[in-house]
Design brief:
The protein has 129 residues and is α+β, with helices and mostly antiparallel strands. The chain contains one helix and seven strands. The strands form two sheets. A four-stranded antiparallel sheet has the order 1-2-7-6, with no helix packed on it. Residues 34-129 form the SHSP domain.
Length: 129
């Protein structure tokens, strides 16, 4: 019986949790790489007496690939990009889609919303009711 190796439960659990944490960190890094260049998190909300303005910073190459929908008390921004590479030995293609939804704090006149670009800034202007 002296040939048995004692099992150290705490040490084995620490190893297990470290492996799980490393796995999820790698998955998050892969997601960051996947969404590189599609950063829709830079949003500024500007409340005025008679309107709400939302300003998004959008990469120039995505300017014509976005759809904006204003309904009820929310603004949805979505779109997709794709690219492909070919050479004499291989071909690769990638496709990315994204969706962001923002709820607005007050009632708005969605049917009167206006969307426009100035440089790399997408602005959604929504009158209040």
């Amino acid at each position: 019986m002296s040939d048995l190796i004692p099992w150290d439960a705490i040490r084995n659990l620490e190893h297990f949790f470290r492996a799980v944490e490393n796995y999820f960190n790698a998955q998050l890094k892969a997601l960051d790489k996947f969404f590189e260049g599609i950063d829709m998190h830079h949003i500024t909300v500007q409340e005025e007496r008679d309107r709400t303005l939302l300003h998004f910073i959008v990469p120039e190459e995505l300017k014509n690939k976005l759809d904006v929908r204003v309904e009820g008390d929310k603004v949805e921004v979505f779109g997709q990009t794709s690219s492909s590479e070919k050479n004499s030995h291989s071909a690769a293609a990638s496709w990315k889609s994204f969706y962001q939804c923002y709820r607005l704090p007050k009632r708005i006149a969605a049917e009167k919303a206006q969307v426009y670009f100035k440089g790399n800034r997408l602005t959604v202007e929504i009158p209040k009711t």
